[in-house]
């Protein structure tokens, strides 16, 4: 039986919390992307939600739209229409971050209209779910396993917190706090309460966010309850089994076969492997990490750390995406990393950024921050077109030319997810602790932080990720002693640190991949960082058969790929030379990032038969690579991340 | 509108028919395998059929077993229990060929018992289908699209013909002839007749077989009707649409979305691409080729030849399997040939042998015979374990060690299919025409053939496929002039032909890859053939991305693979050297065939991380390959057909 108490606080380091989005003003690489989200994507998201009929479903004074999206073939309990509240919640969240960047009265009015509809929809007792109140009344709380009921609540909560931070308006926050109170009355260990938890984790991390925003501990307690209860078998029965029988259904008549799909097969503290649906997994682990941080609960660490290792050592795409399978939108088995059929849902890479960020809540550790950066700049960012209007859902690492971003998708979870991540990127750059500030990511920005009882402004000046030089300037409101921990990216083979012009040996101050500088900081103190950023070739473990004889190119945090528009057809006929160097080049239409150019070979066969005895001939050719996340922004064509490479003999 | 008439007989060459199985006695490579089928597999097949409950369903005097296998999830009109008649038909067919090889009174008695049950089940009007008569009465002919109704009839017909040839017993044949007459009364262009055709082609080729065995032309007419009617839209309506509406269902509520799945989307003469379910496709094309041959109907040739080209030029695995996708058990798009997930159903390779053999009905052409041989020795034969008791359903070209043959399968179509093919292999060796005998395949054997009005015994003495020398001895009952056409395998770079000791230049007599020897043949005439059989490396077209930088090894008709039991783990870490030679070696447990051994490299990384900057080092190592069709007969381990190979610089 699992020990629920937070017995291991002595083992925990200082508690790190991310700054709220309004504390960090971002320019540089992400600035224009936030601008695009604020001016274009936010409106697009709301347009698409409303065009789909979502406001008709939410607003109780509008005619009931009824069932618009049929129940899914083969999974007769779910319609994506059940998720509409979450689509609104995430879209409002993304739009709210946009408002922080750039006030927009029209956008704010649109959100106020939606919030008002939710306010009028909310049940007297605080319940709020447009599907169950308008489309399937009488069924609330009857199928937590499948129907995303608390998931919807979580995303609305996150939207409400963001809107509050962006505008100071409390209405949405109050609505969601009432709903959270109602949920806390329904779910819990008390008599007559349900000992259930959502089939799609999300409420856990959302309640922590709500608790942090309102200062109310009871929301943190509810988050912890959901984490602790998951996968238990009180009286020998799993909640979902019991719930199915109460619906008159056979528990084993379940489309996804086992509860690994929702990581609820065993209690979370006993789990050691990443399994099931990828986004559910990463949202759950995010919630677990948040609960661990907030309660100083070290009993969650073995699961978190081991699962993290299982994911990153054996199941992560080089782009930071994960979950190869379309069938369960998730995991299959170790080293199963096919390229052309990679599912690698955008939401999964986004969720990995969320999880990594929360692991940093336990203290700076490059193991988490490096992966956060990899997922952010590659597997997540690829989900958004440069013009902010089109989106990828699944993200292969190879394409024959027919994989393109969507204008919209019948399950539109990914667009607002990548939008809200990018628009709130400031919150991921830093961690604030009692006597320490951690710098996790580099981007031209100004942050108003707090530590050691003082306000500290930190300005970053940098052209990252195009170049690896960063100048940080500190302005504490008065001189104060604290630790500034600077991440030294694992990909950089050579790091130079200067503090106020004086060179510092990184080896002397490095801890878990961060340079920890503890001193009395004064206004005007500055640090110059130089991260060597060579073009690098990555090799995959031999157990990833499809990547053998190939390399993935990276430069700094950016993973690169070949596109047909630059290199012609049959990208698999291209071969890199063993020692060839790369030069950076300007190419239009790839967001101002450098392309990499080298000389390699193209293999040409004299035969166009399917199989032939004659080996192809090699012809020298220029090979041009662009950052993976910008692919499919120019003309149609093939794409390839893992490029054939001749071995060095 | 398609021209149905057989207007192009002037374009057709002589009509070739395969000898019946009793005309050819096979030894050599296939002899022991036929022995195994006769003594073991035939019994195993009947055991499994009966253990599944099939005889309980067929025998009207046994208690009704009811629905034993639920309707399929997602396809609520089909249960594999509907196919039981076909499983019996094919198993009886395989067993019948076994009886020809080796009389077995016990086996014969088992078949008689089953035939007797069918006889007692048969409706007065001739209808015979154990599912519709015993499990779902009142539903006959209501769902041709899904329910395999005529498919079952076809396999029972094939079984009946084989049993007749094996034993001289007419009972089963008469039963099936009565059923065929009944089907002919139900289906046809006349008033009150149904203009339907089966969703799973099979009846077409079976009716041709029945017509040839009984001499009754009306069965050939019915086969032609089904071929001609397929995909038509009389009065603008597709038969399956109309049939669905008559069942009260929406035609578009169809699990497989389009009628490409059953190659009935457009009339067959208009088709130019291989699409849909692989086995359905190849059975249909087999039936079309038979109808073309029997009626001298050249109007089917453009479709047949173009579809053949589409399959073999862009959609065929090097093993002769096809159909990469598990979802539709069939085709997806050109050059989609993934290795680890290849579906390549055993039945599909078997059906390709059937189709190729029937294309040869239009005359000898190496284009068809080479593919027939490739599919036979690799993609089909792999479906049967060396001991004859275990079976593959799907056949990847790469495995991590968890893909194994089945003892049985809930859809047991493949075991009796590969068994009946192997046990009747004699019929594929030759084609008989008016003044010509074609030799398509080489195997130690004695055949009693007929041409130019004379009986001709042909003896082949050969260790093929271990060696490429073949000695043929002819014994016409008296001297007679005819053409003997000898296939010159496309894989052989050098061919020597001696007739009665005199060397003959192949170039002078070659036509479509056959050496055509027209002369007055006398008893004792002999031909020595020497086919050079070097180890060869095949390269795949650049559009098959996963095979680039790799080769498939073949020697003669056998395609080779690496197995973990010979080479250790991580087969994708092995690299062939550019010019390395191979030696043949004896290895236990691989059916007496040669293994191929060479020196190559194993790549070893100093890191076991998932991704690393350090390139692996190469260490020389012995690499041992075995024939693909014998894999998974020894210890568990990985398997790999497309092996990495260093380019020649």
From TrEMBL, chains A, B:
Superkingdom of the source species: Bacteria
Domain Non-reducing end beta-L-arabinofuranosidase-like GH127 middle: 437-533
Protein name per its UniProtKB record: Glycoside hydrolase family 127 protein
Organism name: Rhizobium oryziradicis
All copies of domain Non-reducing end beta-L-arabinofuranosidase-like GH127 catalytic, residue ranges: 23-426
One GO BP annotation of this record: carbohydrate metabolic process
Cited InterPro entries: 6-hairpin_glycosidase_sf (IPR008928), Beta-AFase-like (IPR049174), Beta-AFase-like_GH127_C (IPR049049), Beta-AFase-like_GH127_cat (IPR012878), Beta-AFase-like_GH127_middle (IPR049046)
Domain Non-reducing end beta-L-arabinofuranosidase-like GH127 C-terminal intervals: 535-644
Pfam family membership, one: Glyco_hydro127C
């Amino acid at each position: 039986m699992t020990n629920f108490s937070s017995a291991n606080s002595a083992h925990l380091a200082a508690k790190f919390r991310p700054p709220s989005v309004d504390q960090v003003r971002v320019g540089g690489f992400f600035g224009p992307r936030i601008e695009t989200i604020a001016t274009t994507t936010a409106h697009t998201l709301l347009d698409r939600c409303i065009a789909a009929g979502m406001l008709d479903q939410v607003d109780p004074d509008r005619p009931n739209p009824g069932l618009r999206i049929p129940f899914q073939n083969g999974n007769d309990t779910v319609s994506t229409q059940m998720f509409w509240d979450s689509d609104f919640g995430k879209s409002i969240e993304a739009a709210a971050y946009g408002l922080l960047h750039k006030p927009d009265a029209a956008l704010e009015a649109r959100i106020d209209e939606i919030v008002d509809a939710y306010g009028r929809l909310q049940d007297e007792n605080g319940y709020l779910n447009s599907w169950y109140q308008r489309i399937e009344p009488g069924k609330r709380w009857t199928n937590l396993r499948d129907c995303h009921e608390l998931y919807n609540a979580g995303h609305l909560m996150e939207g409400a917190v963001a809107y509050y931070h962006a505008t100071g308006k409390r209405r949405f926050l109050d609505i969601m706090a009432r709903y959270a109170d109602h949920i806390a009355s329904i779910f819990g260990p008390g008599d007559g309460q349900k000992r259930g938890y959502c089939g799609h984790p999300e409420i856990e991390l959302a309640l922590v966010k709500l608790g942090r925003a309102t200062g109310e501990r009871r929301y943190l307690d509810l988050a912890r309850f959901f984490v602790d209860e998951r996968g238990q078998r009180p009286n020998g029965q799993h909640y979902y089994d019991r719930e199915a029988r109460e619906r008159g259904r056979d528990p084993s008549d379940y489309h996804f076969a086992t509860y690994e799909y929702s990581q609820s097969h065993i209690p979370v503290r006993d789990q050691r492997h990443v399994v099931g649906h990828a986004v559910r997994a990463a949202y759950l682990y995010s919630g677990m990490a948040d609960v661990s941080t907030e309660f100083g609960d070290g009993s969650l660490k073995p699961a978190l750390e081991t699962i993290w290792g299982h994911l990153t050592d054996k199941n992560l795409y080089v782009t930071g995406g994960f979950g190869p399978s379309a069938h369960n939108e998730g995991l299959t088995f170790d080293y199963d990393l096919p390229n052309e059929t990679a599912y690698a849902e955008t939401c999964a890479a986004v969720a990995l950024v969320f999880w990594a960020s929360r692991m940093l809540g336990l203290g700076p550790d490059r193991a988490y921050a490096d992966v956060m950066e990899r997922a952010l700049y590659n597997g997540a960012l690829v989900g958004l077109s440069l013009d902010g209007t089109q989106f990828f859902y699944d993200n292969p690492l190879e394409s024959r030319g027919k994989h393109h971003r969507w204008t919209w998708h019948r399950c539109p979870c990914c667009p607002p997810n990548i939008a809200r991540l990018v628009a709130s990127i400031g919150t991921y750059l830093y961690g604030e602790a009692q006597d320490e500030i951690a710098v996790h990511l580099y981007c031209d920005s100004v942050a108003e932080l707090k530590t050691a009882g003082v306000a500290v402004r930190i300005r970053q000046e940098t052209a990252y990720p195009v170049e690896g030089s960063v100048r940080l300037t500190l302005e504490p409101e008065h001189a104060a002693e604290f630790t500034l921990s600077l991440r030294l990216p694992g990909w950089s083979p050579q790091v130079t640190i200067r503090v106020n012009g004086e060179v510092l040996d990184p080896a002397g101050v490095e801890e878990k991949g961060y340079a920890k500088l503890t001193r009395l900081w004064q206004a005007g103190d500055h640090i110059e960082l130089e991260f060597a950023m060579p073009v690098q070739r990555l090799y995959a473990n031999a157990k990833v058969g499809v990547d053998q004889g190939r390399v993935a190119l990276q430069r700094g945090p950016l993973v690169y790929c070949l596109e047909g528009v630059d290199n012609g057809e049959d990208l698999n006929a291209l071969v890199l030379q063993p020692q060839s160097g790369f030069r950076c080049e300007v190419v239009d239409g790839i967001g101002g990032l450098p392309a990499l150019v080298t000389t390699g070979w193209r293999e040409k066969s004299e035969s166009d038969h399917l199989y032939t005895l004659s080996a192809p001939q090699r012809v020298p050719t220029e090979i041009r690579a662009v950052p993976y996340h910008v692919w499919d922004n120019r003309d149609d064509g093939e794409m390839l991340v893992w490029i054939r490479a001749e071995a060095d003999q």
